[in-house]
Amino acid sequence: MINKRWSSAVLLGLLAATTLAGPVPASADDDRAEPIAEPPRVQLVLDVSGSMRATDIDGRSRISVAQQAFGEVVDALPDETQLGIRVLGATYRGKDKQQGCLDTQQIVPVGPVDREAAKAAVATLRPTGFTPVGLALREAAKDLGTGSTARRIVLITDGEDTCAPPDPCQVARELAAQGTTLVVDTLGLAPDEKVRKQLLCIAAATGGTYTAANSANDLTDRLKQLVDRARDTYATTPAKVDGTEACPDAPLLAPGVYTDRESFSEHRWYRVPVRPGQELRASVSMALDRPVNLDYGVLLRATAADGRELVRGVDAGSGRIDVISAGLRWSAGADDETDERDADAPTPTAPAVTTVCLVVSNMFAPQPGTAKNPGMPVELTVDVVAASPTPDGPDLGRGWVLLLLLTVAGLLTGLVAGWLTRWWVATWREN
Amino acid sequence: MRTHSATLTARLAAGLALAPAALLAGVALAPAAALAAPTPIPSPGAVTVTKAGTSFLSATPVAAGQPVRVGASTGEYLYWSFPAAAGETHEINATVSLAANRSGRSTWAVEVFDGLRRRQACTAGAQTPTADASASTVAIGCTLRRVRPWAEPWSADPLPGTYYVRLTVVDVPEPDLGLPIDVDLLISTTGDADTSPEDGKLEAPLVPPANAGTVLDAVPTAAPEDSDDDGWNLDLTGWLPEAGSRWVWTTAGGMLAAVAGVVGFALTRRSARRVVR
Asked: Where do the TM regions start and end (chain B) (predicted)?
């Protein structure tokens, strides 16, 4: 009973604390729930090459499983999502490779979906030709167009690209480097080793995912999840920025999220203005979008305009990972402020704005044959907030143990005082 | 005289034993409730989250005590974010149900990052367990450090704000990539958020901005100083110590010490009076 009452009291306290600390989660949600005018856009790219005739998924042909899955996805499509469907290898029946490798069409344009028409268009597909994956990806990116939101392509295939060049993995990397966020999720239907390697490469290059679909249920569930994800995870695209090789001419950044590309053993500089009484916060994530050697690291340093280091954030890792991140905080100390004021401000009365230089460097080593360009994706987050001063409370104590200690000390003091008084009175009487 | 002193010491002993016992009872009550909390069960009525983000920017927000159940592919990077307040200690427990017919051992990891994407240490829990080819599930756990109310900008102490959880397989035979998995995850929080205002306060929690940035053309001039401090400020809230402040605790301790002193003095006097009678 007592316990219950106490726990409810503690719960109330926690509730009060969470209400007091309310802005923390609330502001996070607010940022996320920012109204975005553009609807989420996703394009499904389906391989309809001859190999889709194979009947090895639950005893059904691959194409019929894919058609059924597409039908269910279109039925379950959220209203605001704009969906397009592109096929490859669907029409050309000949043997001429050159012509067969140009065989890709958009059968449902990206936009508000007419469910019946989309399902009918998918239902009439018959496995036919070659597998020009690279070209289809390029065209799919064009179909989605440009915009400020992230866009997703879902690639469903059962066979490796038979038309390289262009190598689909290289195409994916180029598309991702174009500055707009484009994610390619890949689905392998009963994949063999070659297909798996290729799809893994495409997924890694764009920050997408790879799934092996070995049953109709797998395929349907995963497709639905990916289309849903296009709606859930699309956010405003970070602003594209080009870091420079040195601090003085580096771009000046306001708080926000930025993307850039950085090659192996390259340094990229940025500048952030920080007013007195403000704190600089910066974090950087570098994506491992290509095969690199086992161990790697990323270093984010903040330096003053004269080159002396203020603070650094560093992280290193080993093995399989998507991004490696580091972050730092910095606020001007008393010394720094006066220094900067003397150096920069012509009038001693005006508080100076400190320009902090940020430099991103990486410790990645390319594997033999790994392409150097375009560089690896860098995501830089910059924030400038009010500085948090050092607490300077008095040397007082708190807590139950303190109360206990003081009480026992008081009690002992009282006892000693009492004893002394008694002893003194006794000796005084005797005399 | 000897008997007197014997009864006196007995009395004293009783008094000494009683006073701290009463205090101890008070002491024991408060942490008992706090200690009873850490059981990793979902909060009643919490809605199960069935999604996961794929990057820091798209991490799915979850609250402590809110269960997560999501289907995914082996090799996918799953991101969630949760808010943390000063004084809390968070524990993350995940169970991954693995696909059958795998070709080898796989190592799974849950990694936690703060709002600045700085890696956070786990103080307990199997952060990177390895599952044998025959295992059907693998359990992952991570207990984080207690969130500090304030830390120097140069330190890496955990601070209030957004935290990110990334769950993935870090070592797996290549043929096993892409196989379906099911992930159950629960973030539980313990701690009473009991922090003193004298311990400092982070002016802005570590919540990263989500908006696209803008490149400035020139260094902005400093904003004019706030004029709020000018003139007479008759607001007393800044002067009165808050509840739970060190001032309040220490003052209360001083009062208790004074009372205990009088009690101690009275204990010796009363027995002396009886002697006189």
From this structure: 247-267
